[in-house]
Amino acid sequence: MVVRRAVAGVHGVFHQAALRSVPRSVDDPLSSNQVNVTGTLVLLLACRDAGVQRVVYASSSSVYGDDPALPKVETLPTRPISPYAISKLAAEHYCQTFARLYGLETVSLRYFNVFGPRQNPESKYSAVIPRFLAQALAGEPLEVHGDGEQSRDFTYIDNVVEGNLLAMAAPGVSGEVFNIACGTRHSLIAIADAIGDFLDRRLPRAHAAPRAGDVRHTLADIAKAERLLGYRPKVDFATGMRRTCEYFVARFGRDGAGPGRPAARARPVRVSESARHPSRRRAVKRPPPRTGRRR
Predict the structure, then answer these.
(1) pLDDT digits (tens, 9 = 90+) for 147-171
(2) Is 288 part of any domain?
């Protein structure tokens, strides 16, 4: 079996594989279950039999579901509202059970809306930031589901990588679950405005019906990861957005003119912040007030 060969002689496994996307799971719940639940079980069995010491599993903030409480703390009840969220939570339980029954160390990381360069913008199930960027650079209206005031704790990819490395090395955390995020949240409208700021032009928006299975707001409490893993976000949201915008402009070209066109006059990304968890407030350096902004 391919999985057994892959884990033979391995000390630790970072389990990132999944069939992601809430809308995809609504359209095809069986495939989400087969890949995310059965696939995880197959991997855990192979790791147990190969004597792997630890598995770090990529879970999801979607397991919190529609509980309105903010910020999301790991001790909150889970209330998944999509097949994707159910599949990620089921795999979490498998990880914890293998830690208890078989001594295979497992750590589950609940990612909050990961974004960054090289994220696929081309699928109808693509995440919102790469989709917005691709639409903006193609000269198309940004497709906003609902009123656009729904907000997410967007987390730059470098922070997620750091969280994984720490989770693999930290002692005494087998069977634990951790939020991996920035502890801030931003609305979809704020994301659209930030991309418009970077491109120095107003971006039209086309509002569509809300998507089934989507939650209204997410915001992580990352105190547990800070305390037990030593995790701190290394890249703030504005910096991550700037890097992501620069990558997409370099790849697709400004104004949809094709790749290779220089990103002249790259502008700083300024994002209005919907909320920030109290423990993160002192680290914020707010930009000076802007004047004369085009609407």
Answers:
(1) 999 999 999 999 999 999 999 999 9
(2) no
